[in-house]
Amino acid sequence: MKKAKKGGAKKSTASSKNFTNGGGNGKGRPSRALRPVKLTGKKIEEFERDEDGPLGWLLPTLESAYTRLVPRGAVAAPPFEMTMAAEPAPVTIAVSSIQPDGATVLEPAGPTVWRDIFLEYKRRKAASVSPPTPTLAFPTIGMAAPFVPGARNWQPLGPSVVLEGQTVGDQPVAGRVVGIAVAPGGNILYAASANGGVFRSNDGGATWRSMMDRFDLDPTNFASASLVCGAIAIDQANPTRVYVGTGEGDTLQLFRQRITGSLPAYRGVGPIMSDDGGANWSPEPSTPDLAGEAFFALAVDPRDRNNVISATTQGLYRRVPKPGGDFEWLRVRTGVHSSVVVTSSGASTRFYCAEWGWNAGVSGVFYSDDGGATWNPAGSGLPTTNAARISLGVQANNPNLLYAFISHTNGGLHGVYRLDNISGGWKNVSNIPDVLPGKQGAYDLAIAVDPVDPDVIYLGGDRVGAPPFPASIWRCMIKAAGAGFKVNNSASIGTHAHADVHVLVHTPGDPTELWCGCDGGIFLNRNPRGTGEFAGQNNGLACLCCNFVGQHPTDPHILFTGLQDNGTARTVAAPIWNHVWGGDGGYCVVNWVDPDLVLVFANGKVYRSESGGSSHNSWSAEWKFNWATMTQPIVGAPFDPANPADANIVAVAAGEVVFVSDDFAASWSMNFSIPTGHPVDQIFAMAFASPTRLFMGTTRGRVFRADRAGNSWTVIQLDNVAVGPIGLDGLISDIAVDWADATRSSVYLAFGGMGDGRRIWWFDGAKWEVRSGPAGGNNLLNVEHNALAVDPAAPSNVYAGADIGVWHSADGGRNWAPMQNGLPDAPIFDLQIHPTQRLLRAATHGRGVFEIALD
Fold first, then answer.
1. CATH topology for the 18-50+544-853 domain
2. 839 near 854, Cβ under 8 Å?
3. Segment 73-102, tens digit of pLDDT
4. pTM, entire model
């Protein structure tokens, strides 16, 4: 992912603006700490997991989106303001993932910034469609997003599912699922994905279809513009009524423990609902506004489907009627609330909620017997020392039974406690297995109570600590023991599911069907009380977070993509892909002369295949680099059939050092460093203009050109040219060569971060110009731009992939228009133009890979 930093790189001692070197120590080779390590004898099964867990990829993603862009040099101020009218105070970061010296400053985006930007995007998109966008029928299964008839449209390439996934038993996997709603009978289900919106199954999880893309045909309605979900619930009596809370609560502590005063969730726009099973969605207002916040859970009153309680990062909310028949969500309790459940018997309905104490706050459990209007403490004696996040478990028909699964403030297990009478005392359940060995209780904390036996519970946590690091899911048989309870028998039942469990839920009333939502999608155990194993139920659940794309040079059907927490996948006939390597997948490079040679990056290592990368067994663990950024760039020389030897030239950036190979990573014959200009500065983006010219952009806004003579490289800094320097300091997320310049001296670059609308810059070999479009006209939105592509056959055509949309300029960046027909509103992390087939490919971080024809 072009999403930076995982630990600091060794600083270079070079300081000159123009210098020639052949190694990091100035003697033709890098210092020992920076040399790539040749790996031998490593078994293919030993996939390595990022020791930082979700922090390893969540923090870089967030930080690159909000790193502050500030004016510098001769350019004093942004030429236009899109959505950030006021100049807020900067936000400092306690522990930086991009700049580990702790000096990183984040833009303190207001809570409504994403909703405001999405509204502007929808307005711009509507204006670009002529004639007006028609209304289409409900999307068919396999149709990833609606398209405009008679126009060029994006086509989905998957993964709709990844076979042979990163689990015991090689179960099929999908992307991160944070919520599951199951209708009685288990045939109709809804899945809320963290980055891809809501999916629905009508056949018990055998197949899924996206339910949030139809908004693309209604530019006046922005609700589905946020595909980041945190919670989902349905009316059990009529499952066409669906409620969704946007913004992912599970990532709350991971963000807040590192960042002060920034958004607590990623792109939340508040609550939305559907009355037709997800075919259409409506946003609903909230007070205080839940835009920019996140949801943990929703609970629907079984006697009044209009009465819903939500646990959010902003407090506990209740859905109440407004005059005229509409509804709004009003806060009834302040503080972060991490769980809410409902249970009903006879004429009695009871809601329970859990408050997650912060800093000096105290975590606790409360109940309401009046539909959520008033709340009181539930029971007495619940331990609060070192108690952090709480998840609650109930039986749907037993208001007098409640379990609280509590994580420790260090992320590990605090304990499980049981309440059998609302006026009684909480009792400890002893002998709980270690469900949280990875200490990720702030991120993974799930509990389900057997619907017919109150003494059987299921606990979900992070992962089992052995390759391939499967899910930590435990069945616990409970019995009375003295003044409390104890687990009389426990069993680990999650090894066939993916790690990082976010939700466990039974089919209503059915103890033989237990569903799991995790970082690998949805899994079902049909005999959880016995010897049943979880099985992947992910066909069509196209919510994988793709980082980068690698392409076969002549066969457009063969593709690779690096996936967040799901390794590297390959396809020969989309939309079904196969898992071919583990870890956190990054860049993928296919040799354009010999496509049997493939390179992929994962967790600080570059792996090489000489057999097309077609299976797990086709890779060798080649090189371990100094791991400076979460996904370090690997790039190859430009496609040039007239010079086939050029296909073997590849470069890898590791912090401030670039390693170059002439034999497609069989060895590394050259290396050079960029000059030191800041305490810590990492190479974040690279592009070859020719076999002997390489451009680089860094995490602090510096740009360099390296030219080769023999085995030496001369490095020149470009961002600070005397006339027309770059006017911004910030994260350079991508760099692309301007193929219109025959001297290969011109490039475009994109900025990540937030706070300045000058997103794209162009360098003509001597000076820089802003190429983000005119003020107040056909310009780019003020959001992070992650990817650039310039059409070699028609280089005035430039394409930009942003956190919102793919944008096209036909005049070298002077004017821009959204290019979205059929493309979901998920962040775009990579853009690639196929070298022989005239196809533009986009990697979305939450909805897979898409393509559109350029001719």
1. Methylamine Dehydrogenase; Chain H (2.130.10)
2. yes
3. 533 333 333 333 334 455 555 555 555 555
4. 0.87
